[in-house]
UniProtKB/TrEMBL annotation, chain A:
Protein name, as recorded: Exosome complex component RRP45
One annotated GO molecular function: mRNA 3'-UTR AU-rich region binding
Annotated family: Belongs to the RNase PH family.
GO-annotated biological processes: exonucleolytic trimming to generate mature 3'-end of 5.8S rRNA from tricistronic rRNA transcript (SSU-rRNA, 5.8S rRNA, LSU-rRNA); nuclear mRNA surveillance; nuclear polyadenylation-dependent rRNA catabolic process; rRNA catabolic process; TRAMP-dependent tRNA surveillance pathway; U1 snRNA 3'-end processing; U4 snRNA 3'-end processing; U5 snRNA 3'-end processing
Subcellular location: Cytoplasm; Nucleus, Nucleolus
Gene Ontology CC terms: cytoplasmic exosome (RNase complex); nuclear exosome (RNase complex); nucleolus; ribosome
Keywords: Cytoplasm, Exosome, Nucleus, Ribonucleoprotein, Ribosomal protein, RNA-binding, rRNA processing
Automatic annotation (TrEMBL), chain B:
Transmembrane domains' residue ranges: none
Localisation: Cytoplasm; Nucleus, Nucleolus
GO cellular component: cytoplasmic exosome (RNase complex); nuclear exosome (RNase complex); nucleolus
Family statement drawn from the similarity comment of this UniProt entry: Belongs to the RRP40 family.
CDD domains per UniProt: KH-I_Rrp40, S1_Rrp40
MF GO annotations: RNA binding
Gene3D superfamilies: 2.40.50.100, K Homology domain, type 1, Nucleic acid-binding proteins
Protein name: Ribosomal RNA-processing protein 40
Origin organism lineage: Eukaryota, Fungi, Dikarya, Ascomycota, Pezizomycotina
Major localization listed first in the record, in broad terms: cytoplasm
Matches recorded under InterPro entries: Exosome_RNA_bind1/RRP40/RRP4, KH_dom_type_1, KH_dom_type_1_sf, NA-bd_OB-fold, RRP40_KH-I, Rrp40_N_euk, Rrp40_S1
Organism: Sordaria brevicollis
Domain called Exosome complex exonuclease Rrp40 N-terminal: residue spans: 28-67
Entry keywords, A to Z: Cytoplasm, Exosome, Nucleus, RNA-binding, rRNA processing
A Gene Ontology biological process term: nuclear polyadenylation-dependent rRNA catabolic process
Length: 297, 246
């Protein structure tokens, strides 16, 4: 099994010295600044391409009609699949989940699924017989730290952008329409939670950084992932081991996290609006057109 | 070196025989990226710019990227992985087989006075042996003079990763004229004092009295490399970074 490449002793010592004595990060960012976050949507609905500095993540949402779980006849199915392949970094192997991968999928699950961001009841088509199964695949294309925040942003963006085929129920007959017949409909979306990860450095975790890159992640002594939406409703806080952190520091982290989440939320909304504008070919003139759209193929 | 416009070749492409340098006495020498298939075929194995040196009857391919492949006499920055009975295992790049560095390959090292290096420490070394299918061997001493010539363990400082092509440009004897790298001179002119060691394996070690200077040099180098800046842009970048830091 290949081992992950560790930074040298010089690098670790220098990073800590720079953070603690000089209060500077290696890339010149402020302690509470994210790397440039970029989001692009694909041509298809439900494809979100997120890059956070050199970390790149692609999330794809898809839906199919299936039978609901027997114990939840009125709910649809919603799954998030995360897989770290050797493309991410050579120490990730296929079919052998590492700790990073388990923690990532667990955090996404807790943030997006368990917080009820997606209204699963609206995915039900025929109680106990037919429902939509919505699935989001997260592909990590390049790993430069802070996978959690980037992946969570990508999942939420993909789901908000996704459109599922329209359906109708007439005389007990369920019809699923193709995009050509009826415009696909967005998912029932309740709120947008985002993850914000703080990393702590120093013997007692006295230095806190936002959006640690891969090098900083390898040197940190503890990390806290806070998931919340722009109304300040916290979905979960995960602090998995590491040195203890002061309660007051944690409160401060949470309030900064809220401002970051508001920024994320505004950015995502603006990007979604931009994409909707790009797709909206017509407006009034289009409605007045006499010719029909040709179905290609 | 030929002064014509750069000729870009792709792997497996056939090379125009008129380009291949000939000499009545010296044999043809092939550099990185070219392979000789007997009896008389020369095939590129990577995509890049074909460079022909008629004076030295040699040809090679200039490319930027990929992983470092050791070749003899390269200067590299390695990280000690562990120590065996009479040599250290040194990592030159992640996920590749380790190189070996004998305990006695340091300046005036004896069994008793050799440097004790622990895992994670850095060394500046020369590749003394690099054969295909064999682990490379390193040395921190010149075998003819017995002097270190600047090689040896690197204390403190910081290592920055750059691309292989940029490391090669930094190492050129005329890095300003041929390599088009002026960032280091520009930094020096701004009154920054720092030590630097460039490894052919895409690593640059920087040390200075002041932590800020090290960070600044690192950022300038990385940005020059990533954005492939020209000479003028490098000067501008240094000016901007120095202003930011003060």
């Amino acid at each position: 099994m290949p081992r992950e490449a560790e930074p040298s002793a010089n690098e670790k010592a220098f990073l800590l010295k720079a953070l603690q004595d000089e209060q500077i990060r290696l890339d010149g960012r402020e302690f509470d600044a994210y790397r440039p976050l970029e989001l692009t949507f694909g041509d298809e609905y439900g494809v979100a391409n997120v890059s956070l500095g050199k970390t790149k993540i692609l999330a794809k949402a898809s839906a199919e009609v299936t039978v609901p779980f027997a114990d939840r006849p009125l709910d649809g199915i919603f799954t998030i699949a995360t897989e770290l392949s050797p493309m991410t970094a050579p120490h990730f192997e296929v079919n052998r989940p590492t700790e990073t991968e388990v923690l990532l999928s667990r955090l996404l699950e807790k943030t997006v699924r368990r917080s009820g961001a997606l209204d699963t009841e609206s995915l039900c088509l025929v109680a106990g017989q037919k429902c939509w199964s919505v699935r989001v695949d997260v592909h990590v294309l390049s790993h430069d730290g802070n996978l959690t925040d980037a992946a969570c942003f990508a999942v939420v963006a993909a789901l908000r952008h996704f459109r599922k085929p329209d359906t109708s129920m007439e005389n007990g007959v369920l019809t699923v329409y193709t995009p050509a017949e009826r415009e696909p409909v967005p998912l029932g979306w309740l709120h947008s939670p985002f993850c914000v990860t703080w990393s702590f450095f120093g013997d007692e975790g006295e230095t806190a950084l936002l959006d640690a890159d891969w090098m900083e992640e390898q040197v940190r002594v503890a990390s806290v992932t806070i998931s919340l939406n722009r109304h300040g409703e916290i979905c979960q806080i995960a602090k998995l081991g590491g040195v203890p952190v002061e309660a007051v520091a944690l409160l401060q982290c949470t309030s900064v996290a809220l401002t970051k989440v508001k920024e994320f939320s505004t950015y995502l909304d603006s990007k979604l609006a931009e994409d909707a504008k790009r797709r909206d070919k017509g407006g009034f003139m289009a409605e007045l057109r006499a010719e029909n759209d040709r179905v290609v193929g | 070196m030929s002064t014509e416009s750069p000729l870009v070749v792709l792997p497996g492409e056939s090379i125009d025989p008129s380009l291949i340098p000939t000499h009545h006495k010296n044999p043809l020498r092939l550099g990185p990226g070219l392979r000789h298939i007997p009896p008389s075929e020369i095939v590129p194995t990577v995509a890049g710019q074909l460079v022909v040196d008629n004076r030295k009857t040699s040809m090679w391919i200039e490319y930027n990227g990929g992983r470092y492949i050791p070749s003899q006499n390269d200067l590299i920055i390695g990280q000690i992985v562990r120590s065996a009975t009479d040599f250290y295992y040194v990592s030159l790049s992640p996920y590749t087989p380790n190189a070996t560095l004998p305990h006695l390959a340091f300046e005036s090292a004896t069994k008793k006075t050799r440097p004790q290096l622990s895992p994670g420490e850095l060394v500046y070394a020369r590749v003394s042996l690099a054969n295909k299918h064999m682990d490379p061997e390193l040395e921190c001493v010149s075998p003819s003079t017995g002097k270190a010539d600047g090689l040896g363990p690197l204390k403190d400082g910081m290592v920055f990763d750059v691309s292989l092509g940029f490391a090669r440009r930094l190492l050129m004897a005329k890095s300003r004229e041929e390599g088009k790298v002026e960032v280091l001179e520009a930094l020096g002119e701004d009154g920054l004092g720092f030590e630097i060691a460039v490894g052919r394996n895409g690593k640059v070690w920087v040390n200075s009295e002041s932590t800020k200077t090290v960070v600044l040099v690192g950022r300038a180098l990385r940005e020059t490399d990533e954005k492939n800046l020209g000479v003028e842009a490098q000067r501008k970048l240094v000016k901007k970074l120095v202003r930011e830091m003060r």
